[in-house]
Design a protein that fits this description.
94 residues, mainly alpha
Amino acid sequence: MWTDNDRKIRACLKCRLQDDEELRLSMFVHRAIQASVQLHKFPKSIVDIFVVILDDCGGIEGPSVTAASLGLADAGIEVFDLVTGCSAVSLPCG
């Protein structure tokens, strides 16, 4: 379910992105990173995060979130803590 804030972000991103996969990934990274940034210290600021995917062999969400979080910290943006992403697979036994 889309919230009003998600709709605003989606409308803003839609003009820059090429397809729904990029939109889905950007919303995923936004939701993961949003809680860690100390937004009260940047009241009227916009922070753009660009993640360049060189090769997509599956499972790009986790590394994208980790790279975005490390990029914010490296840029000097104050965050509560670093966000890490991972992926897991459940295989049937036998």
